[in-house]
Write a structure and sequence with these properties.
Chain A: It is a multi-pass membrane protein. The complex is a heterodimer of chains A (335) and B (260). Chain A is mainly alpha-helical and 335 residues long. Chain A is globular, with a radius of gyration of 22 Å. Chain A contains 15 helices and two strands. In chain A, strand 1 and strand 2 form a beta hairpin. Chain A has helices spanning 8-11, 21-27, 29-47, 54-79, 87-103, 108-131, 137-156, 166-173, 185-203, 205-215, 217-222, 227-253, 264-274, 286-305, 313-334, and strands spanning 175-178, 181-184. By secondary structure, chain B is an alpha/beta fold. In chain B, 32% of the residues lie in helices and 24% in strands. Chain B has helices at 2-5, 10-13, 57-64, 87-92, 110-114, 131-144, 161-170, 191-206, 218-224, 247-255; strands spanning 19-28, 31-41, 46-51, 72-77, 80-82, 95-98, 179-183, 210-214, 227-232, 235-241. In chain B, strands 6-7-8-3-9-10 form a six-stranded mixed sheet, sandwiched between helices. Chain B has a four-stranded antiparallel sheet with strand order 2-1-4-5, covered by helices on one side. Chains A and B meet through helix 1, helix 10 and helix 11 of A and helix 4, helix 6 and helix 8 of B.
């Protein structure tokens, strides 16, 4: 005789604390994009002679570090169920504020702190608009994008700020010697930020609450989590991280231009989304954003190295964003 | 309607209620969700709140759970007047709630949901999560209740309805709540899964808790409840000891058949 049909309740095994390492790796959203990243590196390494040179790698690292740092802040906002379209403008604005302070003769440290302070302030205003005024995050931060860009032009009358002191340029232009390599300082700062962002999101109570609010704000509030406070925190952090990226960018370029970082918000968001951070909130982590930012920059680099027509680059990048997200969606459905 | 209240409710009225609501009114704008409702819960009993859609059941329990504040009315716990202004405060008073919407975070794993909003932390700083303790306590509690889940690291999204409901109920267990509120605990569950949930409800009573259950399912109500409170249009239209009533009578009260 056949055993009686089992319901779902019976079919389960006893509870085990964790799944096997292999299953977890397969289910991990990072796996897909890391494979894509290594595939790209492998292909570029075998088809171009220049890609895998230390010089080129560090150039790529330096170039994407500020996007990546801003993307970590963006990731927190997206994981918390929002979006921050103002991060590109915040980068430019923080760079300009820092450069203006420097040109007024303030010290490097003070100027940077003022630039960072403005980043936090802008993010905090975004947080107020979203949680107090209850504006949709898309609208609030779109408005902020425009307002800040206006400030960038208005405060500089459209002229870039040049002649920044050497002590400031040091930040973005120094390479630190590691064995035989010269690692760019911005890349190290990026590594520092990805580690603290990861620890904050995954190991602290505050991070748990960000995921909870992004996953289901109503449920989080019923469980006694202060969703408003979470929003202040994530938008402020996004502003701070964008300011860090913007100041590094200004230091690297040696000039604070009102047109700087235009359209960067889309790269920043794309890095997070390619990295498996769901725009629905509550999912993903900053390692994904790091890999996403790397994929974007390697792609730009690769298109130059293989001689892809410059005018068509943005189409290629768009296609890659779409395919990366499609692959990730496919993987999720399969589970 | 007045003679309803004169019915014999003595077996439980001898003791002091653990929770008592007096003259509760709740208005949302012009809508009267609750009108002068008295409601009491006694130690170690299961009270069912029944009524049609829009009768005010969910509003009533949300007032007890600290989600809504009553427009008018008083709340007493063990005879002392209290104000329940937030879900956190309700929990501090020993009131735990399992919501109809389940209130789980689908994108998070089992321990994160189990400890949602009250994650244990390491040390005195209260910053870093004590993940080890979370996993251990989740496993211990779920095992002791006989709740089986595929794996703790599964996102709640991939759990079945019954598994979610077990988790939603299981996670209130370790907190020593004296009053457990359950909004439609068996809604959207199969027969076998419902049975499990009702067993959990009875288990809670055995452990000395009082349980307030909202349900549409008469059979489930009559399976577990000691007392049944009927709401209609925001008014308490009846209150019966289960042993002294029948499903028919309750259904009549719910739809207001005596008025026809």
């Amino acid at each position: 005789m056949l055993p009686p049909p089992k319901t779902e309740f019976d079919a389960e095994t006893t509870i085990s604390p964790q799944l096997g390492i292999f299953t977890r790796l397969l289910n991990n959203q990072l796996t897909t994009i890391v494979i894509i990243l290594f595939l790209m590196i492998f292909l570029l390494g075998s088809f171009t002679r220049t890609f895998l040179t230390a010089n080129n790698i560090f150039n790529v690292l330096r170039a994407f570090s500020w996007i990546a740092i801003a993307s970590f802040g963006q990731s927190m906002v997206i994981i918390g169920g929002g979006i921050d379209l103002s991060s590109g403008s915040t980068m430019a604005f923080a760079g300009i504020m820092t450069a203006m302070m420097l040109s007024y003769g303030f010290g490097v440290l003070v100027s940077i702190l003022i630039g960072l302070g403005f980043g936090v302030f802008i993010g905090f205003i975004n947080g107020i608009l979203v949680s107090r005024a209850k504006l949709p995050p898309f609208i609030a931060t779109l408005g902020m994008l425009s307002i800040l860009r206006g400030f960038c032009y208005g405060l500089t009358s459209g002229w870039p700020i040049r002649d920044l002191p050497r002590g400031f340029l040091f930040l973005g232009q120094t390479d630190l010697a590691f064995y035989i390599w010269k690692v760019p300082l911005p890349a190290l700062i990026m590594v520092f930020f990805v580690i603290i962002s990861y620890i904050y999101l995954s190991k602290t109570k505050g991070g748990y609450h960000i995921y909870a609010v992004g996953g289901n704000e109503y449920a989080a509030s019923l469980a006694g989590i202060d969703a408003k406070r979470v929003k202040y925190v994530i938008y402020s952090l996004s502003g701070l991280f964008a300011a860090v990226g913007g100041i590094l960018m200004t230091s690297r370029l040696g000039v604070a231009a009102p047109t700087a970082a235009q359209g960067y918000e889309l790269d920043i968001i794309a890095a997070a989304v390619i990295g498996g951070i769901s725009l629905n909130g509550g999912e993903g982590n900053v390692w994904g954003a790091l890999v996403g930012a790397a994929i974007m920059q390697i792609l730009r680099n690769a298109l130059v190295l293989v001689g892809f027509p410059a005018y068509w680059q943005s189409s290629a990048i768009g296609a890659v964003i779409i395919s990366a997200v499609m692959i990730d969606q496919y993987r999720k459905r399969r589970i | 309607m007045n003679e309803e209240k004169q019915k014999d409710l003595t077996p439980i009225q001898n003791t002091q209620p653990i929770l008592e609501l007096k003259g509760i009114c709740k208005y949302f704008g012009g809508i009267h969700a609750l009108e002068n409702v008295d409601f009491a819960v006694f130690p170690k009993e299961i009270v069912a709140i029944v009524g049609d859609n829009g009768a005010g059941k969910s509003t009533l329990i949300k007032i007890i759970a600290g989600v809504h504040a009553p427009t008018v009315g008083e709340i007493y716990m063990q005879g002392k007047p209290v104000e329940i202004v937030s879900p956190i405060q309700a929990r501090e008073l020993g009131i735990e709630t399992v919501y109809q919407e389940l209130a789980l975070i689908e994108t998070r794993d089992v321990p994160a949901n189990f400890f949602l909003g009250r994650e244990p932390t390491l040390g005195k700083m209260g910053i870093f999560i004590d993940r080890k303790r979370m996993v251990e306590e989740t496993v211990n509690t779920l095992n002791s209740l006989g709740i089986k889940l595929p794996s703790l690291s599964t996102m709640v999204r991939y759990l079945s309805g019954g598994q979610r409901q077990s988790l939603a109920i299981g996670r209130i267990m370790p907190w020593g709540g004296k009053i457990i509120i359950m909004d439609e605990p068996t809604a959207a569950l199969g027969v076998k899964e419902s049975r499990k949930v009702l067993d959990l409800v009875l288990k809670l009573k055995e452990q000395g808790c009082s349980v307030i259950v909202i349900s549409h399912n008469m059979r489930h109500v009559f399976n577990v409840a000691d007392r049944i409170v009927v709401l209609r249009g925001g008014i308490k239209v009846g209150e019966r000891i289960k042993k002294q009533t029948t499903p028919d009578e309750i259904v009549k009260l719910i739809v207001g058949a005596e008025m026809l």
